[in-house]
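Raw record, unedited: Phosphatidylglycerophosphatase A
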Amino acid sequence: MQKEYRARISMKNPVHFLALGFGSGLIPFMPGTFGSAVAIPLLILSANMPVMVFIAFTVFASIFGIYLCGKTADDMQVHDHGSIVWDEVAGMFITFLFVPITAPSLLAGFVLFRIFDILKPWPIGPIDKRLHGGTGIMLDDIVAGAMACACLHIMMMMWPAFTTLF
């Protein structure tokens, strides 16, 4: 059955290429984790961006992701197939809003985002189950990113040296 989905997508199609996290979503195990990992080099490259540019990119990635993920899901004829991981990339960027990008924060943010994305605590679970299309695919990861971001900010408040450990 997996081959049926593969026949409906093309890595030459820029929409599919982005929605599949530059191909990372095609890794046959833990595609969401690999999709989240793809965001790490992008986050490192954006570490010195002005905050407003980082915010603008994050908002753009989230809104454009609705189209990317929805179109790719339609082309695959499967709602939220595991190989669609642009939502993880956008969720990781949301995780790091107003968070200094350092080795400890990247590790903590990655782990926190994956925990929220995998376990889907309220309200992530109901969003994931009730919303469909590109909005549904994106919104649960947007909320997971916001929750991971809140946790990172709490960590920074409780342990100010956290982001300067390395």
